[in-house]
């Protein structure tokens, strides 16, 4: 009898624990912490990730939207830093030169460098200006291939940001023979390829747009 008691006692204990110790606990998540839809930025801005032995800096992931276009271009220009000036005097997140700023109605470089909202306005204003200048070339060349690369509107306008609309016209109309580059060696063809396929169709072409009251 004692042997059966010794055997049954731990079995009874386990049965009791299983009956009371493993019931699911209901947790209430505060409304402020709930995620009810997709977030705008799907990857942390300027997050550093380690892949094996290499460290890479990742830009924000925003897909092929207008925001994706401008953030990818900004990352290439300055890694998205509003407050930087490069060795050649180009300013801010999108690396604008003084001449372009004055053309758009901005004459105070210090204010521009310290005003992210103004920098975003200048970027879109310049995009509208380039889209007006290149409107015929966009209509003529989008969908065609030059140097093995399909031409897209976003690629054309990214290249115009790099080298100016005039040099992009030369590249397109020479079918890739006149391929200028900037001081760091980036070419018109490189930007056309790297920034192809973004949807910036909502950006209106505007003749001689300017930032007001700066």
From TrEMBL:
Task: Give the top-rank taxon of the lineage listed in the UniProt record for this protein.
Answer: Bacteria
- What InterPro entries would the database entry show? Lysozyme-like_dom_sf (IPR023346)
**What is the protein's given name?**
Peptidoglycan-binding protein LysM
Query: What is the species listed in this Swiss-Prot or TrEMBL entry?
Result: Arenibacter antarcticus
Output the lineage of the source organism: Bacteria, Pseudomonadati, Bacteroidota, Flavobacteriia, Flavobacteriales
């Amino acid at each position: 009898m004692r042997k059966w008691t010794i055997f049954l006692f731990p079995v009874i204990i386990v049965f009791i624990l299983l009956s009371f110790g493993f019931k699911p606990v209901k947790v209430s998540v505060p409304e402020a912490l709930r995620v009810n839809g997709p977030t705008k930025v799907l990857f942390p801005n300027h997050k550093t990730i380690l892949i094996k032995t290499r460290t890479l800096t990742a830009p924000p992931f925003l897909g092929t939207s207008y925001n994706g276009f401008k953030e990818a271009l900004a990352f290439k220009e300055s890694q998205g830093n509003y407050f930087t000036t490069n060795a050649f005097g180009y300013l801010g997140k999108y690396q604008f030169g003084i001449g372009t700023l004055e053309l758009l109605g901005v004459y105070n470089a210090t204010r521009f460098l310290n005003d992210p909202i103004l920098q975003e306005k200048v970027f879109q204003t310049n995009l509208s200006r380039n889209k007006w200048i290149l409107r015929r070339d966009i209509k003529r060349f989008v969908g065609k291939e030059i140097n093995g690369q399909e031409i897209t509107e976003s690629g054309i306008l990214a290249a115009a940001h790099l080298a100016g609309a005039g040099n992009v016209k030369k590249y397109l109309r020479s079918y890739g023979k006149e391929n200028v580059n900037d001081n760091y060696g980036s070419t018109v063809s490189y930007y056309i390829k790297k920034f192809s396929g973004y949807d910036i169709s909502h950006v209106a072409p505007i003749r001689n747009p300017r930032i007001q009251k700066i």
